[in-house]
Amino acid sequence: MPKLKFGAFLAPHHPIGENPTLQLQSDLELVTLLDRLGYDEFWCGEHHSTGWEVIASPEMFLAAAAERSSRIRLGTGVISLPYHHPYMVAQRVVQLDHQSRGRFMFGSGPGALPSDAHTIGVDPMLLRDRQDEAMTVIRRLLNGEERFSYKCDWFEVNDAKLQLLPLQTDIEFAVASMVSPSGMTLAGKHAAGVLSIGSMSTAGIQALPLQWSFAEESAAKHNQVVNRENWRLVLSWHIAETRQQAREEARDGLMRHNNEYTVGTLAAGQGTIYKTADEAVDVTAFSDNSTSVIGTPDDLVKRIRELFELTGGFGTVIGFVHDWANSRATTQKSWDLVARYVIPEVNGMLDGYRESNRYVIENRDTWNRAGMAIQSKIMENKRAAAALAEGGDGEVSLSPHALAGKNLAGENKTDKK
After folding, report:
1. Helix (H, G, I), strand (E, B), or coil: what is residue 58?
2. Regions of the chain with pLDDT less than 50
3. How many CB atoms lie within 10 A of CB 3?
4. What are the strands, taking DSSP E only, across 203-331?
5. pLDDT digits 0-9 by tens, 34-53
């Protein structure tokens, strides 16, 4: 399996009840932590309703995140293009790319919440076509084309050209994809990467084996090329040292997230309401239709490898940021455990260590000769030899690297008797 990148996706989802100012600060602190732990990417979204999602401008959030980080790449996941004039989006994208010193990734979507579209008077039936139209114009602007004009039923540009181009030569485009082929088809048309958010649902996981083919077919139709390395799977997890610990830390928050938000808000009560927190964990993480990993680093490694096999390959694992855990400290610990144990295991970073360890254990000739050399020098010195003899069991205080010599010394002393 090729090396995978790892990142985080902040929708964000926060239960109603906590100080929103502190929630935003906590989210920014998470970016700093992930940057320090070596994660590759951080994405955040745009939402304007439901009460659970408090970031209205991913650009503003990422500008602050850029000042608190140094290496992690920052992406809008996503800007809802039908809500904005494409020229203004392009301007903000350029500025953010410069402020982040070329770490920006441009993710877009049609708008996930119908309540957002309703508020600003946009028919949900128009959203996906408008995203497509906006992406075309934004790409032309970011590429630095000569002045051009474009007019449609919801925006126009006249003699448009950006006075400042992005710091990056080619900013990566990415689109959100749920269960239907539309996101993948759009990615193929625009040679964009993909954020597969649908992989957090049962239906989304079932659709994964076919998803990339939609992107490839669309790319071929529009004379474009797509690369699986730019396919990102979004997964939900909470990781601890043991499964039982992970269960205890995440179960109450998981049940609340499902009952109050996923079913209670988005589905208006139509769906599975868990009666107990343990039931929520059992169904979500330990059933045949499990969509999340609540367990140990080994459990997450296993799931990632299974999904890689199921899909035929992707480039990045994206963890969904949530408040399932019973404290911010345990949330941070979960991300820490993934960085310490999951990422190196998945990417083969420990293979060389294990091979070296196995070689030393299985090939003892040089170690035994080193022990003989130590024993020889001891026996050449009368006082050292006497001290060794007085040890009773033939042991002598040697460094760990001379452990073989200790054993050999004991064997030689026994032979002399």
Report:
1. helix
2. 394-400, 402-405, 407-417
3. 11
4. 231-239, 292-295, 316-320
5. 999 999 999 999 999 999 98
Question: How many C-beta atoms lie closer than 10 Å to residue 65's C-beta?
Answer: 24
Q: How far, in Å, CA of 75 to CA of 59, rounded?
A: 9
Distance (Å) of CA 21 to CA 32, 40, 92, 184, 253 = 17, 26, 24, 36, 20
pLDDT tens profile 94-129: 999 999 999 999 999 999 899 999 999 999 999 999
Alpha carbon of residue 191 to chain centroid:
22
- DSSP, collapsed to helix, strand or coil, labels residue 107 as strand
Q: What is the pLDDT of residue 384?
A: 80
Q: Which of 223, 329, 198, 200 is nearest to 212 (CA)?
A: 198
Residues with Cβ within 8 Å of 347's Cβ and at least 6 positions away in sequence, in order, are 3, 4
Domain layout of the chain by residue ranges: 5-353, 364-416
Burial readout 291-323 (b: 16 or more C-beta within 10 A, e: otherwise): bbbbbbbebbbebbeebbeebeebbbbbbbbbb
Q: What single-letter amino acid sits at 24?
A: L
The CATH class that applies to domain 5-353 reads alpha beta
